[in-house]
Write a structure and sequence with these properties.
It is built from 15 helices and 11 strands. With about 350 residues, the protein is of the alpha/beta class. It folds into 3 domains: about 40 residues, no CATH class; about 130 residues, Rossmann fold (3-Layer(aba) Sandwich), CATH 3.40.50.10090; about 130 residues, 3-Layer(aba) Sandwich (Rossmann fold).
């Protein structure tokens, strides 16, 4: 029975095991108090310093180059100035699109307008003459005559049967409505009119009540008018009033693109004859036929210092094909008419004259 005492000692030995388990709890708390993440965030500061060091490296590299070669630096600046000069001239030129800006005279006074003189005292040319001190002479290179109604009837064309009409000139408008009046044909109010430029479109007010929904016009370029016509291709039957010389590239374009249209010769153009050359400082052209008539009268024409104004893309292309320099173009952007193009040119010539004086 004495042997049972050591058993109770083993039970007591279990208590220290519990004491060891108690201090084990604060161990995870010590691990939480350690904040190595905060130290890693502080490492980002030297990264900013490295960027600053890079900028410091660039500065000393540039400094020795500029200090060592002051003469080369001057030549570089001079070259930059030379490059800027033609850019400034191009901005000033405006309507003068040709590179031969130096060939412009210091002034010009007389201008030949190859159209009949406008009726009335208040016209753009009269106002421009007073404003810029210019003298305008009006001498058409072509004379226009209407086709007699009896001859037009032979073509068996009734203008009233067409829902749309294409005009490329004021002459086409005048002789179209003249034929309509003589044939006693009244165009429907729904008729649509397509014009090469805004100037031609506004001229329609002489014969119809101008409404934007039935009058369409381009910027003077052939491509712009073609684009407008294409949008109305499916719904309209087009009439194309023209002279005996035709109407340029439009018929071919309309045929290729499947338009329903008819050409109607309503007037004829006769080349005017001139015995003497023109002494004007500037000559203006308004259609390709006028260019051909002028060159037929003066086959050996040399432009020299004479200025040339051109209205319409077709006119400009023909002049360029003849290797003639155009100084004033219309329509072009805000420049809607030849009078505006001449005014722009006069301002540029005057500005260049003042710059030369300085």
């Amino acid at each position: 029975m004495v042997a049972k005492k050591p058993v109770s000692k083993k039970v007591v030995a279990k208590k220290p095991v519990l004491k060891k388990a108690v201090p084990a709890k604060p161990a995870p708390k010590k691990a939480v108090t350690v904040k190595p993440v905060a130290k890693k965030v502080e490492i980002k500061k030297p990264v900013i310093k490295k960027v600053e060091v890079k900028t410091n490296k660039i500065i000393p590299v540039v400094v020795p180059k500029t200090l060592k070669n002051k003469e080369t630096e001057k030549t570089v600046i001079a070259k930059k100035a030379e490059i800027k000069q033609p850019i400034v001239e191009d901005k000033k030129v405006g309507a003068i699109v040709t590179p031969a800006v130096v060939a412009l005279p210091d002034s010009f006074r007389t201008v030949l307008i190859s159209q009949p003189e406008p009726v009335g005292e208040k016209t753009p040319y009269h106002d421009l003459a007073k404003k810029c001190g210019l003298r305008f002479d009006f001498k058409p290179f072509l004379t226009v005559e209407g086709i007699p109604v009896k001859d037009f009837r032979k073509a068996r064309i009734n203008p009233g049967e067409y829902s749309a009409v294409i005009f490329n000139s004021r002459n086409a408008i005048d002789y179209f409505f003249k034929i309509c009046e003589e044939m006693r044909v009244k165009m429907a109010q729904e008729t649509k009119y397509f014009c090469a430029s805004e100037t031609i479109a506004l001229y329609l007010q002489k014969y119809i009540q101008y409404r934007k929904r039935k009058v369409f016009y381009g910027d003077g370029s052939i491509d712009e008018l073609k684009s407008i016509l294409t949008k109305h291709k499916a719904d309209e039957k087009f009439l194309l009033p023209c002279s005996t010389l035709g109407i340029g590239p439009f018929p071919e374009f309309l045929k290729k693109n499947g338009f329903v249209f008819t050409e109607a010769v309503m007037y004829k153009t006769v080349i005017a004859e001139f015995k003497k050359d023109f002494t004007h400082d500037m000559i203006t052209f308004f259609n390709p036929e006028g260019v051909r008539a002028f060159l037929k009268n003066f086959p050996n024409f040399k432009q020299g210092s004479k200025l040339i104004g051109a209205f319409g893309e077709a006119t400009q292309k023909l002049l360029e094909a003849e290797k003639l320099t155009i100084h004033a173009r219309a329509p072009l952007g805000e420049i809607k008419s030849m009078s505006m193009a001449i005014e722009k040119l006069a301002g540029e010539v005057q500005a260049r004259k003042k710059n030369k004086g300085h």
